């Protein structure tokens, strides 16, 4: 086991360890209760005071307004809530404590300081979900430290949330022996997760992976290796975070106060990926210097969980079975990836691992149907079932290819080692420290996974004896008579139900896909008469609105004015239903629709940061790492549309204006599925071309079929724009007149001449990551090939971007540059 422990020579100040990290309650009593627009600012919360989910106010604020206590919505529909404390002055907001993480409550639930002085959370049916505190608390208060307290009339604390942390510590908070933090399951699922940070009673501070759903501990993957009584994890008021040992030694996570709490909001969180990180957020524009006005990770343990989470006998690893993880030195998140021709079982819960997208069974196994793809610096270090020495790579590959059980061979060139592995693969990792090459078996035909035929289909004509035929005939006749009787009964029953069924059909079909049917009046009121315009596109105008029935449920309403071929309600409803069945974290979610008379509108979740365009070509530009994650997010969203949703969708208008950013700057593709609402024929007239100038694939202008590859082309153009923060079509670029005005051609010239530095001019962050810049530019050039057959699929694009497969040299595009 690897430990990243720093023993410092000096002893911690006694004040940092022994002084209770809470402000005096009498300061609260001097505050004045003040109403605010977001909630109410309270000096204290008296007995009988009640807070209602979706009621008014929606939260109680600390005296400074930095923290809020209340019902925190878990989704855009605000249908489920956590009773939580969160940072209310940051964007995004950050939950720092919750009472009911495993049992979210619905609208109408209440929090009350009862008449006997307890905090009581009841659901919408009045059933108590959670309670806290001993009887006779005189009041409750949310302090400016983020600590929720119940206090007696003497101002002594009878109960405090700091003693019952969930996954987060705040400055002024101590994790004492016997206490722990537990991660939530995923970023969107707040239930108990797969990792735990424990301040053990033996004095050791330990990070454990957990088995779900039981929560039993596997072998630790990080610890301080300390012993003693009185040890505690301290997050002091100045922003230092360290483990204080009773003998005077401290083990530093962030032992010195580099970022003061006066200039930065702070928190330390055990994240869903098992890493304990310290985050800071600049309180004003100048405090952060080069730091973004968001939550920035500045310290973490372990340093690389992909490398350090080592459990030899059980468990799947960080990212799940049949996957592998890489941190790439990123402070914020690890990256979970699937091998070639594998895909995530659940893209929203990647810890569940990956599955093969092709069939590999021993019955009828033919080695000629498979090949091995080499991926450098990848290994699954456990569960080998066969090992060879003194072989070369070709022989290692041959051994795996001829073995129907083998799914991966790991080759080590140093001593000619070859390890064969079968499913499930566990503890996969990728990094420069992995001096192995994975030879991953894939299908040459990339056939989709199908079940082998059942016993009935294996019966041949020779096996059907005359008795078989007689029995089959009798059974067939009997079945036919039964069908006639059932049909007669059905006609009678259906006659009575037909009218009622027609009335309910539309509402029922929408409920299946969880879409809400709005009236035009509702949307007119929600948008204040369609006054706040967000933008205009190929399909109409988009307006911002707020649903009257919910608290701060912002929506975007798209008024459709170009429906050229849908002449009846059923056709429109079917298309909307198809869009409503499409769910992915990189797609904008459709909430509902309106189809009333001549009014046809779509209601989407509101994306607070607007279109990607504003962060590429304006004064405010995203940092390189943010742009990388946006490119990956768009690629995964397109992959889902093309290959993973129930009905494949070709977008036909991929461009930065149709990529929106949520409050966490996650890329969300918009307007998918709307191409079907236009004329279905793919005319080659200029007026019939779908898409936007500069992003349109060449086949739109030729007598060629329109396929998913038109989106791949547009994605390649947009990739170059995101990489360079420049528009594809400009009248001029920079100050040098000789520079190519069309970005895609200029980018290719820079790539061909080995001058990517010209593309990334003045972007030092990107150039420090030159290998990934080169890989991304190469992938983009593959995507913009004029011949659609040369362009990779979005599955291959995603694999190349993630580094799961090598990126070969692309063909020369100069032959397709006649329009330059």
Automatic annotation (TrEMBL):
UniProt KW keywords: ATP-binding, Disulfide bond, EGF-like domain, Glycoprotein, Kinase, Lectin, Membrane, Nucleotide-binding, Receptor, Serine/threonine-protein kinase, Signal, Transferase, Transmembrane, Transmembrane helix
SMART domains reported in the protein's UniProt record: B_lectin, S_TKc
Location of this chain's protein in the cell: Membrane
Entry's EC annotation: 2.7.11.1
Coiled coil: none
GO biological process, one term: response to other organism
Binding site for ATP: 558
Superkingdom of source: Eukaryota
GO CC terms in record: membrane
Classification via InterPro entries: Bulb-type_lectin_dom, Bulb-type_lectin_dom_sf, G-type_lectin_kinases/EP1-like, Kinase-like_dom_sf, Prot_kinase_dom, Protein_kinase_ATP_BS, Ser/Thr_kinase_AS, SRK-like_kinase
Keyword Signal: yes
Annotated ranges, domain Protein kinase: 528-805
Family: Belongs to the protein kinase superfamily. Ser/Thr protein kinase family.
Protein name, entry field: Receptor-like serine/threonine-protein kinase
Lineage: Eukaryota, Viridiplantae, Streptophyta, Embryophyta, Tracheophyta
